[in-house]
Amino acid sequence: MTFKDQILEGIPNQLPQPKPFDANINHAPKRKSILSKAEETLALKNALRYFDKKHHAALLPEFKNELDAYGRIYMYRLRPDYKMYARPINDYPAQSKQAAAIMLMIQNNLDYDVAQHPHELITYGGNGAVFSNWAQYRLTMKYLAEMNDEQTLTMYSGHPMGLFPSHKEAPRVVVTNGMMIPNYSKPDDWEKFNALGVTQYGQMTAGSYMYIGPQGIVHGTTITVLNGFRKIKKEPKGNLFVTSGLGGMSGAQPKAGNIAGCITICAEVNPKITQVRLDQGWIDEKITDLNQLVDRVIKAKAEKETISIAYLGNIVDVWETFDKANIYIDLGSDQTSLHNPWAGGYYPADLSFKEANVMMADNPELFKEKVQETLRRHTAAINKHTAKGTYFFDYGNAFLLEASRAGADIMAENGIDFRYPSYVQDIMGPMCFDYGFGPFRWVCASGKPEDLAKTDAIACQVLEDIKKQSPPEIQQQMADNIQWIKGAQDNKLVVGSQARILYADAEGRMKIAEAFNQAIKNGEIDTVILGRDHHDVSGTDSPYRETSNIYDGSRFTADMAIQNVIGDSFRGATWVSIHNGGGVGWGEVVNGGFGMVLDGSKEASKRLKQMLFWDVNNGISRRSWARNDEAIFAIKRAMVIEPNLRVTLPNLVDEDLLNSL
Question: Do the beta carbons of residue 241 and residue 196 sit within 8 Å?
Fold first, then answer.
């Protein structure tokens, strides 16, 4: 069968042969056993409902074995035989070009070069899933191939509920992931209901089909590292940044360190993913011996090198060894998947990777104890370095939160706040998000590198034109992004689809998108798919990350994210998504996202202006109401640019008056 035939087949009438377990692939760890006997039966019934009854007798023992062996039913037998990657948009069987674009993005999320655990349909973060099983993938792709522009596909946590009548201006797909009744969002609730096959953790861009590989976070990390060094008034050259994690998102850190120009040490316990990042060129060297690592860092400092080094081992050993060796760390952070601490997101010290994986599944309570013990050690070592002058920040991975829950010495003197800031509090919030700058991204649906090069040039020209008229308050942001886009090709950031990311405000996003749409109309480039990370100005309510610099008491509310996705849906998004969880964990955050197809039409031009303006200014208005000075400046400027925008502004109270009480 051809690729198109297999897509149109959906769930096959005749079952394919079982597939052997491929040990060469980076697989998800076994999930802990959490279901009762009755719930195991329910999970099997839930899985079998995707298949004709004639197949149940053959599939039942197979699915039972998967549930016992892996803690989940992935339906490995249903994995397609074709190569998984983002094909040119015209290669997809589709009645709707918008639907074909979504198929392209789904396959990009599952590309072996992109996905962390591709056979388990997990894109990044240890549990950030596109689907829960391969039947969902097959059925979704079939629906997308058959739908027209007056239908909308409704996705319930990976399950395609079906095609419903709508209209041409409606989203083609509406995605929800993990939307639980509030009292059922504890970590074990995810384990249970995911094992039952009724919900999933979509992370941020995994379950919304907008992941573009580590490049998606490289730019944000580069901006963070650059501004981190600016904050401590140091040049990156010859100075040291220490962190950990080389997975889907965290793998961007060493590349970002190279672009910023510093020495980066990034620890990782998984040998497979470490080798992948080395082979991809995202790290320069790999070291397995701590003494050798110390010597190498001393040399790099002496010669003021720009270099990224992966240490294959536990990050705690690095912090402790560097303290004893008196290696001065300028910037420190962590980007292990601590949103998922008990299921492979963070590994305990003094255990091998294999030993930890066995304990995780077979003795989860002891594993949790070991993780929390390691978090206490980790924090103690960081505290020793910060006492010497190291600037440490939480990189939005729930490190501070989980360290506090482990009883680590991580709290400030008031016993309420953390000892260290979130990077959003200190860097990205006031310097970027409050001004409306966030991770705007696009994918060239033709798959042609030359189209990406043309879009880079278009975006650069647009930004340079805007910068000439920009106020002083945002000149640095404009300059950083122009420098980024000029070096994007040289830095070889593409993994998977021909994609690009840069930080832009509403004006920049709209003007870049309009320039793309005009270039498509003129035949200079083919279709472009717009999107962004949920980690942005407006799409995410996350009290320990995206909204950690909201100080009016509203950072634990989720109105902004919900309003964002509702507003995007009726202003012209091609697809929208809303997720429980992402980045800092299940039950800890709500994320809204979108995708938009540009086809060179007048309708696309209208949609991009309406939606992109709202998508950014929704967040600026909320940040302004929280009395953030930069956001007040930005929303006042937006109201001058757009007369139809009228936002409620805060009246500021004299602090002396309050202090007089």
Answer: no
